[in-house]
Amino acid sequence: MRENTEIYNQHATEKELKLNKSFQIDVVDSIYKIHTGELIHEITTEFCKYFHATNIEDGSEYFALVFDKHFVPQLDVFGTLKVNMFNHLNKLVAYSIVKLSHTKATHLVAIVEKYDIHNNLGSYIEKNGPLSYEQISKKLVPQLTELLSQCEQRNINCGNINPFNILITEDDNFVLREFISSYSSFNQMHAYVAPEIAECTETGRQIIGSSADIYALAICVFYCLTGKQPWLDYESVYKYNDERFNQTTFKILTGKRKITENFKAFFKGALQDNPSLRWKVRNIFEWIIGNSPKISFFENSNENNNLLSFKGGNYGNLKSIAYALFNNWEDALTFTGDDKLLKWIKRQNVSNDTMESLQNLFGNERSLVKTPFLLKSNDRNNKLTKLLILIDPTGSIRIAGFALSAMSLPAALHYLLSKNKRAQAELIIKILQEKYWKFSKARPSACEVIDEKLLEDPISIYSVNSPVFGIERIVYSLNSYATCLSPTVINDYVSDIPDLLTCLDKNASEFPEKFSFDRHLIGFIAAKLNIVNDQEVKVLANFPKFSDHPLMYGLSVLNLAQKAAPEIKIQNLCNVLTSKIIELFEEYLHNVNFKKRIIASLQEVSKEGDLSKIVNILSDQKPFLEDYNGYYKACKEVQYLRKQIENLNLGDRVFENALILGQKLTVLMSYVLCLIVTVILII
Amino acid sequence: MKTMEDKSYNLSKEQNFKFAASLIKIIAFVIAIMVLVVSRYAFIFFSAAMLPTILAIFFDRNIHKCASATICTFNLIGVLPYLIRLWNSNSINSMAKSVIVDVDSWMVIYGAAFVGQLLYMSLPLLIVKLYAAKVQVQTTGIEKQYLQISEEWGIPIDKK
Q1: What confidence score (pLDDT) does residue A297 get?
Q2: pLDDT tens-place string over residues A66-79
Q3: Of the candidates A22, A415, B67, B141, which lies 20 to 30 Å from A28 by C-alpha distance?
Q4: Reported pTM
């Protein structure tokens, strides 16, 4: 069955990961036929299109998820979902790289079990009212908790738990829809987004652990139990969040409702706004068997008398003031200069460490903070970001009205770059440079990262203008599963160096005139080869007009790529590169003989298809230096000669001068003659 | 600064030459006064002999007054032998009368002035031709060098 399937080893993956490539158009793994004419609009997301698919052998029906190139799929999660059996999660059957007939492009396609999207829990409750206590406590919660447990064991977030994503099977069981179709919580309904990631941009909601999923499960249980969605009564998401952080989610949802003690205990534990106090999966299991864990501490609400006024609102806890400050960033910048904020924070039972950090942050520069216009905008943003992390350590990283979790920095940066949102992408670069996540010691937290080195190493070599160390390079270094977004290869699924070389060689043979190097290509190769030294990629380093040219960068990084994958033949690429370099030399080299000589050498070595030989030819900078210096000398000489010619060719003026000279000579000669005659006559 | 100096240097040179060109006319004027003191007939002769010079001065529009200077000089060359003859004669008046009535003397005097006019018309043109030929040779040499360097270094050639 799988003779037509080639195995590709993914580079830069922690796990041993194999990504199949199907050679049959519109067919995954030679089994699942994608019906590209049958797009399912209702469930299609920004990152993946849903199509109907069938098993060629038995005719059974599936959904095919065709992923967009601008999405970074977590292939390790795909692998885990495919290999392992997850109860109560729609099954990922297969995935591979497939060429599609309607786009003529290659995509990552995943095949999942087909389901009736209308047969979901949300629609069921809208139609039939709330579920019974038994259905919730005996089926819904145990089944989803079992799923969460399985995901937690494998470090996977669902991020899509809400009633409209929970399918009801024919045997009245609950199955969660696949969550691989977008980034974690990207399409999540706002009430189901956990408080620690509530402010985050859609791409910035990925966190470690299942705390956010537990919160979503608890909200889901609340809806199933009551059939009510009180969050819809608020005029905006901001108002709802403001209220839930002030009052706590538990109080605003359960306060005025008749809920059994058993479920009240569940909500009290699972709806904790603070993720470190929120129930874990094991606590829910304990609750299921009737052994509710004790809740020793509860997040403060603003019922106490210790309220802080800001922008017309009164805030009783750190989370709520952090949320308000973030949403009123410009006002917050001046508000932080007020002593009353620090005094109020002191009264909020914050740890000594946090207080010390706050003192360090503001203590020495109180006077400057009081007159914020004296501080540069960057410094003020920086201080406010740190302040928000210190007072809300489980929350996200917030900067200049933009928030995201530390774990989602790579994906968010990729998303923003692919959408060409440079200003926000630069904010992420700043977050990476400042390492804001280090300011939070809370666990779990939206500032938590699995391996800090994975974020710190790429950003340490960042250089804004360099194609090798620029933002594209950082994106590819941070997202090892990202495909190359260069327009040159956008129709192919290029995820590693051999793929890239093969694709470039194919493009070079098909469209030689359109071939060009861009920052994505260079950044992609630099990331895959982990180039850290600028000198590795400098050809003709002493000549910026050559060394900084994208073609030269392209040549040098491709040379390194060819060394890394010598088995890939790139004769066409070599020919096109040579012709482009020749064009470049035709334009920038001056000495005709030198130009002829070097072009002849390039044409000679290009036949061998070996880029290192081309680089070798260009490695001797002496003749280039002579050409450069000689040209400027020749220019000066030519200028001098041109002036001389101009002076000599002045036409009428020359004639006039000569005529005047002749006249003067005539007068002089006549004087001499007169003198001679006079002398003769006198003698 | 240097240009200013060059200009003033050129100006003083021009003035010097103008003075030199006027010198011969001053000499002729001094001679005329001396002749007037000595003999009225001689003065009439001299005045009539210098008629080409007077006409040349009147019509000379050249800034350096080269034409009148050349004609005056040659006019003097033609007159000088007769003036010497007058000076050496026993009776200047009678000698002056005989020179005045002698057609040959007028032929010599006006002929000399005419030669001066011819010389003024032809010699500067000859010099212009020689100078132009020299410039042509120089230009060809420099242009050859210019083309060679331009072609060797791929510098665009200015065809103006």
Answers
A1: 56
A2: 999 889 999 999 99
A3: A415
A4: 0.79
Which stretch of DSSP H or E encloses residue A37? Answer: strand A32-39
- Are A592 and B116 a contacting pair at CB < 8 A? no
Q: Tell which B residues from 115 to 134 touch A, by Cβ distance under 8 Å.
A: 116, 119-120, 123-128, 131-132
CA angle A547, A551, A554 (to 5 degrees): 95
Distance CA A573, CA A606 (A): 9
H helices present in A375-480, as ranges: 377-391, 409-418, 422-434, 452-460, 471-478
Task: Mark yes or no for CB contact B153/A642 under 8 Å.
Answer: no
Q: How many angstroms away from the CA of A679 is the closest CA of chain B?
A: 11
Which candidate in B14, B24, B66 is best for mutational testing of the A interface (most A CBs within 10 A)?
B66
Cβ A348 vs Cβ A392: under 8 Å: no
CB atoms within 10 A of CB A453: 10
| Measured distance CA(A343)–CA(A348) in Å, rounded | 9
Residues 6+ apart with CB under 8 A from A282: none
* Chain A residues touching residue B149 (CB < 8 angstroms): 634, 637-638, 641
- Structure tokens given for B17: 């030459």
Q: Check CB contact of B150 with chain A, cutoff 8 Å.
A: yes
Give the span between the Cα atoms of A527 and A509, in whole angstroms.
Answer: 26
Count interface pairs A-B at CB distance under 8 A: 123
Whether a cis peptide bond, with omega within 30° of 0, leads into A444 is yes
Sequence-ordered alpha helix ranges (H) in B39-91? 40-49, 51-59, 66-88
User: Is some CB atom of chain A closer than 8 A to the CB atom of B77?
Assistant: yes
Which residues have C-beta within 8 Å of that of residue A490, sequence separation ≥ 6? A69, A105
pLDDT in tens, A99-130: 999 989 999 999 999 999 999 999 999 999 99
Q: Determine contact, residues A179/A152, Cβ cutoff 8 Å.
A: no
Residue A191 has pLDDT above 90, yes or no: yes
Residue A205 has pLDDT above 70, yes or no: yes
Mean pLDDT across the stretch A377-385? 85
DSSP state of A533: -
Tell me whether residues B120 and A666 touch, CB distance under 8 A. yes
Q: Which two structure tokens, joined as six digits, stand for A463?
A: 């250089």
Interface touch B132/A659, C-beta < 8 Å: no
**Cβ of B123 and A674 within 8 Å?**
no
Q: A638 at the B interface (CB within 8 A)?
A: yes
Task: Indicate whether A377 pLDDT > 80.
Answer: no
pLDDT digits (tens, 9 = 90+) for B81-93: 999 888 888 888 8
Provide the token pair at A142: 């145990």
Which of A628, A666, A672, A673 is the best residue to mutate to test the B interface, defined by the most B CB atoms within 10 Å of its own CB? A666
Expressed in angstroms, the distance from the first to the final Cα of chain A is: 134
Q: What is the percent of chain A with per-residue pLDDT over 90, rounded to a whole number? A: 65
Name the residue type at position A102: H
3-state SS class at A643: helix
Distance CA B76, CA B60 (A): 18
- CB count in 10 Å sphere of residue A613: 17
